[in-house]
Structures are given as structure tokens and as C-alpha cells.
Amino acid sequence: MAIIPKITVTQVDNVPKGSPGIAGKVAIVAEFSKSLSAPISVNTYANAVAEATTGTITSSSPVGDQCLEPLFRGGATDVIIVDISPSTAGSPTGAEIVTAATSLEENYDILLIPYVLTDTNLASIKSYIDDRFESSHPVGLIAPVTRSAAADYVTTAAIFADGGCFGLICQQFTVNNTELSVAQSAAYYCGLVCERRVDASFTMKVLGGVEAVNAEMTFAQSSDMGYKLVEAGIPVAKCLNRAEKTFVIVNSRLPHVVTATDGATVHLDLYMERTINYIINLFNLEDFLGEKNNAITLDAIEQRLARVKHECIDTLGLVEDIKYSVEKVNRDCVRANIEEIVFDGVVTEIDANVTYDVI
Length: 359
Fold this sequence. Notes:
This protein is of the alpha/beta class. It has helices at 45-52, 63-74, 94-102, 119-134, 150-157, 182-194, 225-232, 270-282, 295-315, and strands at residues 26-30, 40-42, 79-83, 110-112, 140-144, 165-169, 172-175, 178-179, 210-214, 237-241, 246-249, 253-259, 265-269, 321-328, 334-342. The chain has two domains: 26-257, Rossmann fold; 286-348.
């Protein structure tokens, strides 16, 4: 048979590949109009609509349907959709949301729950996030939050005082001339976060595409609502230039509180929390399970961690230093200790000196 040279082109589905310094896989847990028996992975808005919704999305559509567009508009490109099927008509209960969220075991980076949950439900989500952290698969929560008073916001934020949260969103954004709900605003913020490098702070950075914010807050006095929320670690947007419709996050510090080496108590910035999770995921050593617990394996682990350290410090510039150690605990256990991750601070104050002269 004659062989005729030819080229054959076959279109295949795009499989998102993580870029160095990016940890943007989002799991959105919500009710969708199309019942899904298992989580699905999508990478475009069109794909998400086709796979998780039954048609035209309106203000009466399930919350999950309504949050897809702002999530992808914000920048999401790698999304796991987890459908909640409510036991009764209407929105799922807090318990059903918690059950659906905490049953997800695969690897991802950001947990988006577009429902305003009670502190009790959020504490249950926090327990799940803690379990994932301990198993070397950390994630961070982004969710809407509405409370009646500043003190209530502070109480809610305190649930995440030792980590696990990337943002509790309490304002409504206007995007593309449309005012989003607080749930949709959380989805949009999630999209903005997930497309950024993990070491990118959001402090005084522009919320791309946001044209207005409701409600606007003040920050001048410690008694102001905006001041109290920022102090608690809740990201709050303010107007920087109304004519140009420029809005920024005042401070992206989170509820997570740590004690620095100089004894100061500080809130971790969003970039620090995301970078910690990114490094822990890189330090994951699951593929060494089942190997012989001997000097060769310990040396291989040492080499792996040295490469991770080099990537994070010298190649990506994520942190100043990572100190770690590896030891054989017993015949079954090897312990890899991340002893210290050293971060640069975030500039939140600039002193400018001005001298005048008249001649």
C-alpha cells in the first residue's frame, strides 16, 4: 500500500496546566439547575453553562448558575463544580452546604461557597479546611458574609484567626453596569484572586472591572465600620478615583494572626496565606509512600525539598527563606519539618518629606 504523507489535526479539550507561582483551581459548591451526580471540571464559562445549567440564567436561577459568569469574568480558568441538591424546594440548608463542601477530597486551591453562612456552619467548614491543611492539601475559603453590626463581623472573622480564609466579602460590586449580589461579588473576587500569582498582595490594588461598590465605607476613625472590618481582616473596597471608576482593596490582610520573631502580633496578608498553601502543596511527599524507609529514600526527599526551596526563593521569589529538615522517626515514619517560612512585609505606610524654599 502506498504511504501518502499527510498531517492530521484533531481538536481536543484543553486541560488547564498550572503555571509556576499560580494556585488558582477553584471548587464552587452551590446549587445548580442541572443535577450533577458527581463533581465536574470546567475551564470556560460556556463549558460551565453547558454542563451545569439547564438554559437561560436569570435572577430566579439557583445561586450556582448566577455565580458562574462573575467567577469566570473575574479570571477563573480551572473550576470544579460541586452541585448541591436541596432536600426540599428552595435554597439548600446550611447543613447541606457544609456536607457538600466537606465531602470534596480532590486537590484544589480555593473553596468558593456563594452563600451567607452562620458562624456555626463556618466553623464546620473551618474544621474541614484544618483537616486538609493537616493532610498537606490546604485550601482557602472565599465566601460572602453579611452581619448586622461590626462586632458580628469581627466575631465571624475570628473563626479564621489561625488561617483557612482568603476573603470574606461583605460588599456588592458593580461590574459591566450590573450590580452583583454579595454572593456574585464573592465569586467575582474569587476570579480576581485565582488568576494572580500567590505572592501578589491585594493591598491598595485595583479591583479590575469594578465600577461601583455598595455599601461604601469610611476608614478615618477607629469607630468607622470600614476601619473595624479592615482591622478584623475582612477585605473592604474603597473608591480611589470616582471619575475613572477605580476601586481598590484597602488592605488584604486576613483574620489569620501570628506572632513575629520580634514579638509583634501581625495579620498575615493574602499573599502570605496563599504562598504558605502553595509551598505546602509543593512539599507534599505522597509519592514517597510505599518506598523503603532507608537512607536512599531520605536522600531523595532531601533533594526534592531542596529543589522546591530553590524554586520558591531563587526562581519565583515568593519568600525570603525556607528552613526545613527531614528525619526518620521509626521504621514506618519519615518526618519532613517546614521549620520556618520567612516573608517580606507589605508596605502599608510611606513617609514623604517635603522641603519648601522661596527665592
